[in-house]
Amino acid sequence: MISKYLLFVSSTKSQIIIFILLNICGLVFFFLPYSIFSNMLDLQFSYNEDIVLKFLNEMGPDGRSIYVFSSLLLDTLYPILYTSLILGAYVKLFKNSQVILILPLIAFSFDILENIQITMLNLNFPDINDTKVYLSSMATSAKWIAILVAFLVLIYGIVKKKKKQIS
User: What is the pTM of this model?
Assistant: First the structure.
C-alpha cells in the first residue's frame, strides 16, 4: 500500500498536480479575511505569549474562528500536499534509500501537532499561558527545522543527480 502511494506521488503527472494544489492552497491562506495570513502563528519560527496575544487580538473573534477552521481543514491539507510532493521527489532522487523518506514525515508530524496546538490557543483565547504557548512555539519551530532539513536534502539530491548526468 505504501509503495503504491510512493509510486503514485512520484509520477510526473502527480507531482505537477500536487504542486498546483499546494499553490492553490497557499493562495487561499493568503486571501483569508481579518488579517489572518499576516497574523498566522504557523508562519513564525518561534513566538511568545505577547506575540500570540497580539496576533490573535488583531484577528478579532471572527478571524479567530476562521483561523481555527483553516487550521483544521486547510492546514491539514497543506502538509499532506507538501509531504506528498517531497516524498515523490525523494523517491525519484534517492531510489536506494528508504530511510530518507522519514524526513518529510517528521515535518508533517510536527505540522499536525502545531495545528492542534494553535487551535487550542485559539479556542482558549484569551486564557492562554506560557506553557501552552511554549508547546505550540516548539512544534512550530520543530516543523520549520524539519522542513528546512527536508528541503536541503532535496537540493542535495537534485545537485547530485545533475552532477551524475553531466559526468
Answer: 0.92
